[in-house]
Amino acid sequence: MSNAPAELTHLRADGSAHMVDVSDKAVTTRTARAEAVLETRPDVIELLVAGELPKGEALGTARIAGIMAAKRTWELIPLCHPLPLSKLAIDFEPGEDRVRIIATVTTRGVTGVEMEALTAASVAALTLYDMIKAVDKQAVITGTRVLAKSGGKSGDWSVE
Prior knowledge:
Catalyzes the conversion of (8S)-3',8-cyclo-7,8-dihydroguanosine 5'-triphosphate to cyclic pyranopterin monophosphate (cPMP). Residues 19-152 form the Molybdopterin cofactor biosynthesis C (MoaC) domain. This protein has a single domain (28-152), classed as Molybdopterin cofactor biosynthesis C (MoaC) domain (Alpha-Beta Plaits), CATH 3.30.70. The protein is of the alpha+beta class. The chain has helices at 42-50, 58-71, 73-76, 114-132; strands at 28-39, 85-94, 98-109, 140-150, 157-158. It has 4 helices and 5 strands. Strands 2-3-1-4-5 form a 5-stranded antiparallel beta sheet.
């Protein structure tokens, strides 16, 4: 990989893992956007959008689950810093046979929020899967990725 750092930031010289020291980094507004995609059948999408799944209204439940998960990313992913999140939005874009889940997270701090955005999108997708599995056990979660980030020393980045 051409963009690989010269040294691994989460490893000490002896190879043991540690949390990166971010105390000298500048406080900036940092935003990250991530997505996950839940693939299912068209009839399931209709039930989902109408709020008529056997387990109830799934989109609101998934939104709350994603928000809760993002706020706890530091407890779920080793070596992540706990961050005060200023804004967290989860949006759903239903298609014919899929739902695109987009999580946007903002903080004002010394480290980015890519992991929080990925966690939010992932847990929202897992929650949707849980809510539809009674009608489609073969649903698939795909395409989990960071779409964009801004703020910090490395600047802005986007796949869009």
